[in-house]
Design a protein that fits this description.
single chain; 12 strands; Rossmann fold; six-stranded parallel beta sheet; alpha/beta; two-stranded parallel ribbon
Amino acid sequence: MKVAIIGATGRLGKELVKVFGTNSIPVTHQMLDITNPTSVESVLMNLNPTIVINAAVYHPTDLCELYPDRAFLVNAVALKYLADVCNRLDATLVFVSTDYVFDGEKGAPYLENDHPNPINIYGLSKFMGERIVCRYAGRYYIIRTSAIFGGEGKHKTLVDKVVTQLRDKGYVRMARDVVISPTYVNDVANMIKDIVSNMEPGIFHCANSGYVSCYEFAKHLMEVLDIKGEVVPVELTELNLIARRPKFSALGSNKIRMPDWRDAIHRWRISILTQGCDT
């Protein structure tokens, strides 16, 4: 098994490289531009992988509203280029998607067979990517995940933002009317390996089980990390964000089972202490 991991320097990409170990082929943006079909063909044909995992993404949600062309090019159009080359190689394509393909109106965790209805550009671009994969890839897995934390990456996670604001300002404003499934990046990477190694292709929801409001999540973090400060509950509309957010985007699954998000936070905290790092 040779696993090409596109976006290998990103948060999830780095974890996937670790999890797949000697079977992994890290592919960085410097090596391959997924928005350039010539680059995709040249690099992947040369690497000749049996599995291609696309963990590359244009995902700052508000920036997607400002630069929709870039969002659709990276998150959707590029998947056609990847699918075409994977078909030529007889390789499996794995596309990492998001909880934001849903509108948040269900009021309960979304399952794999629930119908997507994105309400922002980021979610729509990822949903279009899913449709392209379903239409053009011969063998594929679509992995939806949610509110990833842990690991190392260029963009801050929700956990990073909460910790930074509590330490720098002494308080953080968090939406009490937004419900998520916080998910440990290490758990996602390990589950992706398990899925592609042992399960039939399809759509999978890879999120830690359970759900929590952003407000209660921040309070839990403050307690676990022993950080002083105040979590101020607000309504989502009070945050004045550019893009709309689904108010209940928690993910559930009728195919797999992942650990509870509280357990994930506990293991993440232990990993930080073991590594001798600060949060």
